[in-house]
């Protein structure tokens, strides 16, 4: 196995595969990247058992193939070496006993490769169940929901985002049981029958990063316990979470008694000031006092140790009756940061009932739910 | 005590004082900044027992004084608050019971201040022993030596840089007993009698950062166990290290049998490649093979676990006899990064004797010494 490749072009591809390799794995071979060189090109595979990435670098002027073969190379070391090589190109040459000779200009490395037959196989996922989704849509669905997944493992299904794909729309929901984020988007060519799957939140974050700038469609392939996303020259595998996702529709309140509109930026900065003092408290609650009569909203953060902050937050209109409510400022801030409009509507019912944060545009089907905190 | 101040102007000053405050001190009052407001202006003091900084913000249009007084405010919280306030200005108003009211536009904080009489006094340093030094010169002396101080505490004096100030020159030396860096610069107005002091390395790093862009002279005041640097509106206090600094002059070799010139950048990149494999070894040694006959320098890094790297390093001339020597690549890299010239001369005597790295310009009195590693 021997090839010569343009270094910066190779680094770009290597960076994608590195996302799936862990530097310390309990399975030592997974600290490596499997490299399979055929006449078609170089296939690099990385896996951390949670996600796997397989990437094809096609033979071209930038990748010149001298002889085919396969090897596993220590990901971390290899990446460091490639980054520091002096030349524009480098040559990768596997010699006897899995020794790899890497040369670039006057520098020559001879590093120990690992046996490629010891590298585990990736799951085979048939083409039976597949459909396309635009990269932009998927990225939005992820970033607008993934922050709300549970971070503790007491209810494993809640650590993932629940997706329901149907012919005309995709619904994504995440909740940690204190707050919830649900986004629905319309699509043209969803799968012919409804499909539901729960994908671990942190795997989705990796996927969102990988497709950051992609503009085209991704192809989604469904396996039994895995799902694969194909785009560009790359396949992204993630395990699925088993179990039934709770039916959250019944949690969403149908009516409200108080509605306030805010500029996202106004409320965000007031919350960041209030949380400076509330973050030291175990309860971490800010109080919002909505005075419908005087059209005034006051925000208060309080900590017996440090002190207190109070301010009037600019509002763009109050409907309904006055109300005082306490909530976690971090949940509210996360909801606001996920907002797709500059102005949001917050709908309350009672001081101890969950309230919703929605865009001020009815066309956008995006609802966030936050459970208040009892402070008395 | 009450003042109104321009926020961004205040933050710049606050940042300097924060360098001396620790967020978790065993002396709780030192987590605070002492603020003393007189008609002249606001004096802010921060201290972490190792260094102290006292800074005067003069009364001006940017700092309007309503009433004088003093208070201690929690540094970390106060800094966070000031950064997040909504307005261009803010008002700081001390009320009964050390309560501090901070207002800016529609936001109002009420935080608990601390008793200013509980704040420790800074050492008094008389003006008897003082002299001036240019900020640029001091900064250079620090950055060219401080990296070589000892990081373990087995010989406390070696954790500092030894300075000898005399009328015509300043000498700075640091050594951790494996390598040494000594820089001598000429000055016009040194102190009339020779002064020697050892200043802790990490305190010097803080000082170098503080004077980063300063162009004027610093005034140095010597106390018994402390030294104070005055510049701009700021006084920087650091404790001194007690004890005698070893006489290092006798360590510097007078002759050499092999001299090689290198471009700093060539040798640095070759070392960074070699250390990729040597860093995993306990000995962390690279081998340099100087072949005087063929005018060739080879650098080799080797690790039984990972592999080996070997390369020819461009040299600008070899004088004397051939030699093979092993050394810690990190010490060599640090020496090269401190270099003030693009080309250095490395002078060797024997494979197991310390060697020196000096500028290729005889006018510059800067010598670095590195002890080789025995690899057989």
Which features would summarize this protein structure in a list?
DNA_polIII_beta (chains A, B); Proliferating Cell Nuclear Antigen; DNA Polymerase III, Chain A, domain 2; 376 residues; 3 domains; homodimer; 26 strands
Oligomer: homodimer
Q: Give the tally of β-strands of chain A.
A: 26
The fraction of residues in strands of chain A falls at 35-45%
- Determine the mean pLDDT of chain A: 95
Number of folding domains of chain A?
A: 3
Give the helix/strand class of chain A. alpha+beta
Gross CATH architecture of the largest domain in chain A: Box
Uncertain ranges of chain A = none
Largest interface: A-B, 31 and 32 residues
Subunit structure (chains A, B): Forms a ring-shaped head-to-tail homodimer around DNA.
Subcellular location (chains A, B): Cytoplasm
GO molecular function, one term (chains A, B): DNA binding
Protein name (chains A, B): Beta sliding clamp
Account of the 3D structure:
The structure is a homodimer of 376-residue chains. Chain A has 376 residues and is α+β, with helices and mostly antiparallel strands. Chain A folds into 3 domains: 117 residues, DNA Polymerase III, Chain A, domain 2, CATH 3.10.150.10; 110 residues, DNA Polymerase III, Chain A, domain 2, CATH 3.10.150.10; 119 residues, Box (Proliferating Cell Nuclear Antigen). Chain A is built from 6 helices and 26 strands. In chain A, the strands form 4 sheets. Chain A has a 9-stranded antiparallel β-sheet. In chain A, helix 3 crosses helix 4. Chain A is elongated and about 80 Å long. Chain A starts with a strand and ends in a 6-residue tail after the last strand. The relative contact order of chain A is 0.11.
């Amino acid at each position: 196995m021997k090839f010569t490749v343009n270094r910066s072009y190779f680094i770009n591809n290597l960076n994608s595969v590195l996302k799936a390799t862990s530097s310390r794995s309990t399975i030592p071979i997974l600290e490596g990247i499997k490299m399979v060189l055929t006449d078609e090109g170089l296939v690099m595979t990385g896996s951390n058992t949670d996600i796997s990435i397989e990437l094809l670098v096609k033979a071209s002027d930038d990748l010149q193939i001298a002889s085919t073969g396969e090897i596993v190379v220590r990901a971390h070391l290899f990446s460091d070496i490639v980054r520091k090589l002096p030349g524009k190109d480098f040559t990768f040459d596997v010699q006897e006993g899995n020794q790899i000779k890497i040369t670039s200009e006057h520098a020559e490395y001879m590093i120990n490769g690992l046996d490629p037959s010891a590298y585990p196989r990736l799951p085979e996922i048939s083409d039976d169940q597949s459909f396309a989704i635009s990269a932009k849509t998927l990225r939005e669905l992820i970033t607008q929901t993934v922050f709300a997944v549970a971070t503790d493992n007491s209810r494993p299904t809640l650590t993932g985002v629940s997706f329901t794909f149907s012919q005309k729309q995709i619904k994504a929901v995440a909740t940690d049981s204190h707050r919830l984020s649900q986004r629905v988007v319309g699509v043209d060519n969803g799968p012919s029958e409804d499909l539901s799957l729960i994908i671990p939140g942190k795997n989705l974050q990796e996927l969102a990063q990988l497709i950051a700038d992609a503009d085209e469609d991704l192809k989604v392939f469904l396996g039994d316990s895995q799902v694969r996303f194909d785009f560009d020259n790359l396949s992204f595998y993630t395990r699925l979470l088993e179990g039934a996702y709770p039916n959250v529709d019944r949690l969403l309140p149908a009516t409200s008694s108080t509605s306030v509109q805010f500029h996202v930026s106004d409320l965000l900065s007031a919350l960041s000031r209030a949380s400076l003092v509330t973050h030291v408290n175990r309860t971490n609650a800010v109080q919002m006092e909505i005075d419908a009569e005087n059209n005034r909203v006051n925000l208060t953060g309080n900590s017996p140790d440090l002190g207190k902050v109070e301010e009037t937050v600019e509002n763009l209109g109050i409907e309904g009756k006055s109300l005082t409510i306490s909530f976690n400022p971090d949940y509210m801030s996360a909801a606001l940061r996920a907002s797709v409009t500059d102005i949001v509507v917050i709908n309350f019912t009672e001081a101890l009932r969950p309230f919703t944060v929605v865009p001020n545009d009815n066309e956008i089907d995006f609802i966030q739910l936050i459970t208040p905190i009892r402070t008395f």
